[in-house]
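Tokens in:
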């Protein structure tokens, strides 16, 4: 089911209690259509902590699956070990192999993908490179949203390769292998607020996506960061406090309560630069500081 910006905004403005019930309804539909063969893709981060709790509030025996890429914060790895019914899987290739062959993840998946294609010209990607460099598609129509921002153009001639392949080989592939072996279907903690691509994907495919070999559910897709911290706070859920710090309650100019944290903004792979710009804009600690 496709969603409009208005649909998404309306859902995002609902109360936490309303959001919980909507998420459970999304899950129940997914559970039914996948014959109960579900699992939670568990990262050990704040979003997956909430996701796992909500899923298990409906289906208590749901397994969580954690991909230990070898790049995780040691504190996250230790935290994951404290969570019951979590299966740990691992990628078949190393981070070193991926960056040597494909390139390093810098700024964002979109920027890394653009630079990678521009850095590796072929006859097949000629039109795509033209689109990324000039912002003009194959029909000669200007598409400025597809042009790489000028501030990143210097990366094209950087003395290293760039790519978004890390996620594909170190995160997605292990889960795909797990699903091929078990015939289980993933539940993800992705939210529209995580970025324009995720927002676009959720709007296009809805919160439950069914395909021949790629079913997935995003029952928190319309939640906000504040919702996540409020849920953790009110339900007294354990989380990786050594990295995230304390939960704090703030007031907006219109008097609304906003839940936040005073530690790391996110806990992705330790050597990944995706999201660093956002952390710097917010003047938050990041994995390199």
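Residues out:
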């Amino acid at each position: 089911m496709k969603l409009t910006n208005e649909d998404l905004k309306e859902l995002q403005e609902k109360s936490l209690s309303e959001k919980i019930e909507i998420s459970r309804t999304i899950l129940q539909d997914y559970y039914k259509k996948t014959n109960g063969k579900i699992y939670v893709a568990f990262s050990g981060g704040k979003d997956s902590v909430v996701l796992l709790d909500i899923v298990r509030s409906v289906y208590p025996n749901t397994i969580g699956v954690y991909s230990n890429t070898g790049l995780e914060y040691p504190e996250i790895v230790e935290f994951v070990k404290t969570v019951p019914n979590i299966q740990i899987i691992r990628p078949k290739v190393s981070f070193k192999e991926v960056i040597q062959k494909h390139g390093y993840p810098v700024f964002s998946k979109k920027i890394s993908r653009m630079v990678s294609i521009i850095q590796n010209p072929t006859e097949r990607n000629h039109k795509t490179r033209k689109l990324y460099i000039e912002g003009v598609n194959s029909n000669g129509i200007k598409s400025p949203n597809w042009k790489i921002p000028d501030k990143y153009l210097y990366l094209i001639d950087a003395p290293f390769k760039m790519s978004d392949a890390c996620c594909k080989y170190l995160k997605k592939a292990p889960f795909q292998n797990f699903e091929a072996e078990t015939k289980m279907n993933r539940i993800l903690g992705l939210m529209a607020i995580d970025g324009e691509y995720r927002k676009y994907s959720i709007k296009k495919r809805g919160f439950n996506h069914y395909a021949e070999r790629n079913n997935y559910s995003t029952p928190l897709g319309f939640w906000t960061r504040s919702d996540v911290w409020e849920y953790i706070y009110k339900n007294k859920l354990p989380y990786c406090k050594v990295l995230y710090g304390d939960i704090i309650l703030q007031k907006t100019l219109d008097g609304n309560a906003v839940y936040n944290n005073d530690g790391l903004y996110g806990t992705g792979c330790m050597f990944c630069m995706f999201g660093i710009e956002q952390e710097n804009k917010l003047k938050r600690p990041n994995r390199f500081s």
